[in-house]
Write a structure and sequence with these properties.
With 247 residues, this protein is an all-alpha fold. The chain is built from 13 helices and no strands. The N and C termini lie far apart (85 Å).
Amino acid sequence: MEDTGQTPEVHFMPWYKRLFGVFYEPSKVFRSLDERPDWVWSLAIPILVTIILSTVAVFLSIRSPEYYKALEKFTDTQKQYASITAYIGVVFAVIFRLGFIFLVGGIIHVIAPFMNGKSSYSRIISVLGYSYLPYFLVGILSVISLASNPGNYSPLSTSLAVFWTKKEAGIVMLSLLGEIDVIKFWVMGLSTGGLAIIFKFGWKKALAIVLLIWLVTTGIKVGATAAMKPFIDKSEEVSPDSTDATD
């Protein structure tokens, strides 16, 4: 009788063990989340990751030569608004990231029952949130790179886009290459394993859901980039100051 009373606690892990366990025993972490969904850390992880990566991107853009060149044309008031707007962008990035996770969680919650899977929305969000932890490593490495290399103006990238410039590949192809990312595929792998555990179906069904979402989001991103390409090209033609500066 004593053993049966303890069985619901077999897979439970404290939050600090879950945070580290994602990297070396993810199946135990997701079984723990299946028994006790965790709203706090499942939302805190993507929030912290987004704040770190967005802040690094702001610092990189602020110290780039192009930024200082643009500031020369601004008034004092415009300069103040430019710096404020950059940090407001971090807030919007967090809101967008949380909205994206809630949306994807809702889509999975709708699709999974058609594959004979049954779970709760809180468990789905828990899996998606904890699966974001590999991006935290990218954030730490980005901060180290930012602090140790003052001459670097480019964000850390783990995608195929790092091997081509916008001029070589074109902005649309570069957008596609940016989605073929080692860390993103790691996150997708964690999500696949976690969804298979909480829905109690095979990994192939979980992978099909994850790949479907990746294909749709990639198509939307690349399509939006293609639609914006004429405007981006026009804006770059309007301000060809770099050639004047070198002359």
